[in-house]
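Need C-alpha cells for this chain, all 335 residues.
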Amino acid sequence: MKRKYLLVLLVTLACLVAGLLLVLTLGGRKEKTKVSATAPQQPIAAISPRPESPEQARAVAAKVVEAIYSAPIAFYGKVVDQYGQPVANAGIDFGAIDEFWENGSNYHGQSDQNGFFSIKGILGAGLTVGVNKEGYDGIKGKSYQAFGYGMGVDETRQKPPTKDAPALFVLRKKALAEPLIVISRPQYDLNRNGSPIGIHLETGETGTSGMDVVEVSCLTHEELKDARGRFDWTFGISVPGGGLVERQDETQFTAPEEGYSPQEQIQMNINDPSRRWSSVMENRYFIKFADGRYARVSVSAYAGGRSFVVLESYLNPNPGSRNLEFDPAKQINPE
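Here are the C-alpha cells for all 335 residues:
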C-alpha cells in the first residue's frame, strides 16, 4: 500500500513541475516565482534559464521527470526481532519506482548473520523495502517501509539511511503455539440503553451464564445530538468473575499474570478536548476467566442508529496456560 501512495505522490509532483514550468512560460518574466519546499529540490534548481515557449517548458519538464525517476539509490538496512536481536537470512524485497505510471523494478536480497543488508547501483524516484522470514510475523509500519530519493530531502520527507545509520526493520519471532478456539463474528447487536449482552468465547453464541462469557454494552445519547450529528456515548466491557487488561503491544501474545480489572468503560464525549470524537471505538484486551483460562480479544464498537460490536477472540482451553500464540493448523473450531 505504501508503494502505491509513494508512486501517486511522485507522479503528482512530476505533474506539478510540468504545470509550474508552463505557467512560468506563459505568465511572463516580471516576477520571480517561489518554489514550495515540497517540490523536487535538485531538478528545479537545475532549471535555468526560464523556458521561452510551451514546447520548451514541456521539454524541460520531461527532463525534470526523468531526473526524478533516475535518482541514484544506495540503501542500507538491518532486520531485528521484537527483542532487538539480529535476524539472519531474512528475505528482502526491494521495489524501485523507476518507471512513470509503471510498477517499476523488483530486486531481492537476504540479510547477513548480523541482520544487515543493502542495495546499491540502482536508480529510482523511490524505494519500497519489505522483510520476511519463515517463523516470523511482520509488524505494521516496521516490516515494510518506503523511502524517497528523487525529490530531495526536507522536513517533510524521511532521510534515506546510510551505512552508519541503517533503517531498522522489525519482525516478530513466533513462539510455539498451542491449540486455540477462535471466534470471528461480523457483528453482535447492542442495546443502546446500556444493558449488556454476553458473548461465549467457546462458541461465539450470546448468553449471560457460563465461565467463558465476556459482556459488552453501549449507552448512547443520540437524542442530544449537536449540529454536526455528534452525541455522547459509552462503551463497556466486563468479565464476570474474571478480569481484563488492555493489550497495548500487538507483538505480545503471552497474557500477563496480574493487572486485571473486572470491567472497563470508555466514554466518547463531544466536548472532550483530549480525544477526537468518533462513532467507532476499537481496542484489544487480554482476558482472564474465573476458571483460570486466558484469551485475547479485539473489539470494535459502533454507536448510532443501529449499535453493534465486532469481536475476534482467541481462547486457550487449557486452564493456567497464558500462551495465546496462534497457529492456523492448530485451530479448534467452536462447538
